[in-house]
Amino acid sequence: MKALMMTRVGEPEVLQLQQVDEPVIRQPSEVKIKLYAAGVNPIDTKIRRGGLLQGDRFPVILGCDGAGEVVEVGASVSRYKPGDKVWFCHGGLGLEQGNYAPVNVVDERWLATMPSNASYIEAAAAPLVLITAWGALYNRGRLQAGQTVLIHGGAGGVGHVAIQLAKLRGARVITTVSSSEKEQFVRNLGADEVIIYPTEDTLERLLALTLGRGADLVFDTVGRDVFLPSITMTAHFGTLVSILDPGVFDFQEARMRNLSIAFELMLTPMLRNLSEARDEQVAILQRCAEYMLAGQLVIEVSEVFSLAEGLGAHAIIEAGHTQGKIVLTI
Prior knowledge:
The chain is of the alpha/beta class. The chain is built from 11 helices and 16 strands. The termini are close together.
């Protein structure tokens, strides 16, 4: 089969379409999947540059998110049969094969049944961002109905599903975006208030919207430049959750506010082989499938590339300000 291979650490050009042996079932609990689409995430670009990369043998196949059809099952597989449509987040970190390929083999434990109203493209776009947003808001952030949440970068991959999950929990959602076009996009997703950060003072506007209190929960999907000012955007006794490393910072104001500060790295269960935590992630996908079937959760895919065009997808993600998700078709 021809797969998009990471030949070494470096720029997008290190991604090359190469012939490689098709994976085969080796364990009785494994499932062979014909992949139709693979999600492209910012973490893929960071792994390509060497961050969180497991092992040092090249070439490797990137791509954590995949969606496809079961074509073969191991002797002990009980949950799936040939013809079933599945979506999942597995591999792509350097040791186990990722999903920038026509075929993958995955243990049935890490698969979930695709929502029947989703295309392969939509399904492949979703797992990592859904698990991330769910973990950040519901598990780390303990979001409750009636609370106010500030979601930075609401038009992005994680941000746009976070808005919807927060509304499903009954929260008031304030979000930041970079343009008036994105403002309309996030309002259509359910955002109650939108701050266009290039032209508005985010803290000033937030305080005006919350009568000087700040948000009960602030969700940083951007990084250090947003994380640090978010401390003063979080209400006293509130929670600040980030999906990125903020680096070294002064805790004084966070301590004075009695803030809870948490981090959401959904890859930790894969990186640390935490099987029970991975079971919980599969359960999240099953719950999200129910929301999607009910029309309460949608996945925005802004651009679709062929597998051979994967380096272009990486370049766009690294340029920033992507709306929704980018997907490779296979």
